[in-house]
Specification:
Number of helices: 11
Distance between the termini: 35 Å
Largest sheet: 6 strands, mixed
Bound molecules: adenosine-5'-triphosphate, magnesium ion
Radius of gyration: 24 Å
Shape: elongated
Number of strands: 15
CATH superfamily of the largest domain: P-loop containing nucleotide triphosphate hydrolases
Low-confidence stretches: none
CATH architecture of the largest domain: 3-Layer(aba) Sandwich
Strand content: 25-35%
Strand order of the largest sheet: 7-8-9-4-10-11
Length: about 300
């Protein structure tokens, strides 16, 4: 795969492995995240997402393998690297009696960033109006947005979010999704976001990594995953049997099923030339339909959880 200068690797793991209680839960994971990616890290419950993320953030020690962030080994440059990584892992904890601003102030002092940064991050996550309310009264969605604001305080180059929409209602999920989608433009940040639902990250991710039983079984652009979800094309034509014979005689990979012509994994060009050929020979083409497998069903097939949900 070609890689230009602005696609520099922000994060890279090499055979990253973690054993817990003697059992490997993350197995030789090689993951690559490029600058500007919104990387959807997907896997069913128990697949090893949180364990991987904890290692990336220096919260757990790998059993084997290594991690490079911003081109540097985190064993050597841990603190310098982690200063530029913002994270939200599981449910963040707050001081309920303090306001959003006061909670952010506590973290701001630790990071030593200017006071003005608080208003900036509150505005990014659209909590400016709620800034002076005690966090105790916040909805779960508002708390998650405050968590993202906290993660953004240090102006990170990499933002790591572990299932940030867990437990939110559809409106809350939509809000967080819009927010995350807007971040690369507003903050120039690269994002790793985990989820157990492909549909949840599908609309924002540029790349996806799929982990199943501790193994990274897929990593590519969302575009390539969509291509895999493309199925057969079905054509409704007049006189299908002779149309089928005509196309076969010209070497097209057509089948014939229930009175419809079928073309397996047809690209645009093949479909166009088949239709042109049929029309030229005076067949009528009534419809051209694509049988697409949903992305979600591909994900479920890959992770072997199909039918169990
Ligand atoms: N302390 C521990 N000791 C032993 N096994 C553990 C421990 N913590 C986690 N595990 C196991 O490691 C595996 C991976 O767990 P992990 O939390 O990383 O999965 P996950 O992908 O984040 O799942 P979820 O979607 O439920 O958050 C699971 O099988 C889990 O049971
Ligand atoms: Mg988890």
């Amino acid at each position: 795969m070609e890689m230009s200068a602005n696609q520099e690797l922000i994060l890279e793991t090499n055979e990253l492995t973690k054993k817990l209680g003697g059992k490997p839960v993350v197995k030789a994971v090689n993951m690559q995240i490029r600058r500007g990616d919104i990387y959807g890290f997907l896997g069913p419950n128990g697949a090893g997402k949180t364990t991987t993320i904890r290692m990336l953030l220096g919260l757990a020690k790998p059993t084997a393998g290594s991690i490079r962030i911003f081109g540097k080994d985190i064993r050597k440059m841990r603190l310098a690297i982690l200063r530029k990584v913002g994270s939200l892992v599981e449910y963040p904890s707050y001081y309920g009696h303090l306001t959003a601003t006061e909670n952010l102030e506590a973290v701001r002092r630790l990071l030593g960033v200017p006071k003005s940064r608080i208003d900036e991050v509150l505005s990014i996550v659209r909590l400016t109006k709620e800034a002076k309310r005690p966090v105790r009264g916040f909805s779960l969605g508002m708390k998650q947005r405050l968590g993202i604001a906290t993660a953004l305080l240090g102006d990170p180059e990499l933002l790591v979010l572990d299932e940030p929409t867990n437990g939110l209602d559809p409106a809350g999920i939509q809000e967080i999704r819009e927010l995350i989608k807007s971040l690369p433009q507003t903050s120039g940040v690269t994002i790793l976001i985990s989820s157990h639902l492909l549909s949840e990250v599908e609309q924002m991710a540029t790349r996806v990594g799929i982990i199943s039983k501790g193994e990274l079984i897929y990593e590519d652009s969302i575009h390539r995953l969509r291509e895999q979800a493309q199925g057969r094309v079905r054509l409704g034509v007049s006189n299908p049997e002779s149309a089928w014979r005509l196309l076969l005689s010209h070497g097209y990979p057509v089948g014939w099923e229930n009175g419809r012509l079928t073309v397996a994994k047809a690209d645009d060009r093949t479909v166009a030339s088949i239709v042109a050929r049929l029309v030229k020979q005076d067949f009528e083409v009534y419809r051209v339909e694509e049988e697409t497998a949903s992305l979600e069903s591909i994900f479920l097939q890959m992770t072997g959880t199909e039918g169990s949900l």
